[in-house]
Amino acid sequence: MSTFEELKDKALHAASVTADAAKQLAIISKCRVQIVAEQEKIRALYAKLGKVYYKDYVTDEEPDEAEYEPLCDSISAHYRRISRLRELMEEAKSNYQAVKKNSKEAKQQRAEEEDRLMVLANEQKKSTNIDGEDDLLEELNNLNHDTPYGEILD
Fold first, then answer.
1. Stretch 19-26: mean pLDDT, rounded?
2. Once rounded to an integer, what is the mean pLDDT over residues 21-30?
3. Which DSSP symbol is given to 41?
4. How would you class 23 by CB atoms within 10 Å of its CB: exposed for 0-12, middle for 13-18, buried for 19 or more?
């Protein structure tokens, strides 16, 4: 496999890792939003439960379990959803940490590969220079500084 194909594969891998990290962050954000929504639903149900209780209290009626049970069951269901969302969020966080670690490694490998390619390109450039071209450029540069007009030529 050529060096450029290797670099391409590593760049594709790095892009894939970055996409995976973004996906995990999206899952985490979505879970947070859903947890807040569930908490709002719970607050509304608590308020409704409080109103039912207060109505029974004010009218001196016996609490009717038929009124309380659906509200309490609904509150419990929302707490279970929050628990599942938190588990999903923790899983996404651990996946994100793993992806982030892979991303750092991929970036480091890509940088090393780019450095290696630069060295190869420089070596190739040097090997294709006309014999004595570097010496000629150096001699011209030295002449430039040895003349009284050297400052102007810089």
1. 87
2. 90
3. H
4. middle
Contact 30, 129 (CB under 8 A): no
Q: Structure pTM?
A: 0.62
Question: Quick one: DSSP state of residue 60?
Answer: T
Residue 118 near residue 71, CB atoms below 8 Å: no
Place of tokens 């450039």: 125
Is residue 36 pLDDT above 90, yes or no?
yes
What is the residue range of 47's domain?
3-153
Q: What is the pLDDT of residues 70-116, one digit of tens each?
A: 999 999 999 999 999 999 999 999 988 888 777 777 677 767 777 77
Asked if residue 3 lies in contact with residue 117, where contact means CB atoms within 8 angstroms, the answer is: yes
Of residues 61 and 133, which shows the higher confidence score?
Answer: 61
Q: Are 32 and 93 in contact (CB under 8 A)?
A: no
Q: What's the CATH number where 145 sits?
A: 1.10.287
Name residue, tokens 């071209």. Answer: 133
Q: How many distinct structural domains can be found in the chain?
A: 1
Are 46 and 103 a contacting pair, CB within 8 Å?
no
Query: Residues 17, 99: contact at Cβ < 8 Å?
Result: yes
Q: Which residue, 84, 73, 82, 80, is CA-closest to 36?
A: 82
